[in-house]
Design goal:
The chain has 270 residues and is mainly alpha-helical. The chain has one domain (48-269): MetI-like (MetI-like fold, Orthogonal Bundle), CATH 1.10.3720.10. The protein has helices spanning 2-21, 38-45, 47-80, 84-95, 102-113, 118-125, 139-163, 167-175, 180-209, 212-216, 225-235, 239-269, and strands spanning 25-27, 30-32. It has a two-stranded antiparallel sheet with strand order 1-2. Strand 1 (25-27) and strand 2 form a beta hairpin. The mean pLDDT is 91.
Length: 270
Amino acid sequence: MPITGWQIFFYLVPLAFLVVISFWMTKDYQIVSTWNLGNYKAVFTDPLVRVAFFRSLWITLTTLVITILAAYPFAYSLVFKVPKKYRHVILIAIIAPFWTNYLVRVYSWQLIIGGSGVINHILSFMGIIDSPLNILYTHIATRIGLLHFLISVMILNLYGTLDNVDRSLIEAANDLGAGPFKSFLWVTFPLSLPGLANGTIFVFIFSFTDFIAPTVLGGGTKPVYSQMVIDAAHWTANYPLASALSIVMLLVIAIFLLIIFTTIKAIVEE
């Protein structure tokens, strides 16, 4: 009962209010409780919103792929290659960035990838480039900021699952003639899917809803979907439109979760 009451009061009630207000309208910067579908019509027909949505989705999916490709080999090596006495030190190093504020970490990347930043100084000193690379205020910079923040989340989810893999199953696969690749493909990887699924969910949700990295590192000149929500609520005080944008965002996340869980279930059953 306490958990159920907590979820109802702090999640379902605000969500219900968000749904209701998304069908209202704004007039002279005041919310008017006139029921209409104008906000959702604007969400689906406004070309700026549509472009921002697909831009955000593309950034999210590419960030997700890059995060998986970077995190999985690291987590696998940490579990199966690194001695146990060194794992805790490495895990602390992975968790350490969470001890600092996310906004501070995003701003720190400006000092690294800016026109006069560390990377351009190093490349210029080595004679690799003649002029500074334009990384800052692009969506490449946005992906870098998101990757820095989310790779730790993915590694921790994968580490917890891989560390619980029954080693006897891998040994049995080897005894039956499976080489390292087949043993990984048919034993280790399927058993790591729950951790991969959890990490994927976290990365997708954080990437799709984040507006700090696109604003600070991306420059905001090509806004993503989450920035449209912030603009509607903060700059124009159009809370019904911001609510409609948020509801659509929640629906997209729910559809993604359904796809992930359905896919994992099908793979496990197979």
